[in-house]
Amino acid sequence: MDGERALPRNREFEFELPVGYEDAEGQVHRTAVLRKMTGRDEAIMADKRHRSNGARMISELLGNCLVRLGTIENPGLRVAQQLYSADRHYLLMKLREITFGAEMQATYSCPTCQEATVLVEDLAELEVVRLGGDEVLEDLVVRLEDGYVDRSGTVFDVLVFRYPTGVDEERIAAASRDNASRGKNALMARCLKSMGDMPRPRLEALGSAVFSDMTLSDRRLIDQAMLSRGLGVSMQRSVNCGGCGRDYDAAIDMSNFLAAS
Ligand SMILES: [Zn+2]
Q1: Ligand 1 being an ion, which residues bring their Cβ within 5 A of it?
Q2: Which domain of life is it from (predicted)?
Q3: Based on CB atoms within 10 Å of each CB, which residue in 38, 69, 71, 147 is the most buried?
């Protein structure tokens, strides 16, 4: 397993977070100790209340299973919510790995002929991109081609984003469930720190309308910028279709993620 070290009791495992958690004093904690999931954690996953908010379920699960984060003992729910999404996904992957093993059955559907391909993924083999040792996470600056045009015709084309956290994931869960694209707009709006020299209150009043009005090519620029920083576990894989023989790119199928397979 990547970056992992078994601690004496063998139920707890140590990992290095891709980004890290900054506490109120500005100290960054990157060494995470997870324990294996228990029957109680399984009950959290089965809880009906969580069907409407998977992000909240992940927060509770990580809050329970994180034994230590740097010098913080039992960090709990609040810290799990404040972790960057990249770190949360990484920890979830490791939680699956230490509890059920690294192999996971995944099903992909060919975009051309719809043939299903079943593969066994080895989660331990997925590439993990981490910040360098003393590197600090910088905000993401994106220069748009078309930009956001307001009613007076002023163009705003430099956007600055912070990286999303568990709190953001929880807040946009309802919108995402109804409409994935709307959920994405809501997430981008939450993480948008500035747009050109537009005053903050005006930016907040616009909310996700900024992204609904944006051209698709600009939206692609934002996606590419977010991917190119690519911190955390790389979830893209190439699949060869057994039906038509074509190769296609897909995000790793996580539907069996928190179950033995
Ligand atoms: Zn095919």
Answers
A1: 110, 112-113, 115, 241, 243-244
A2: Bacteria
A3: 69
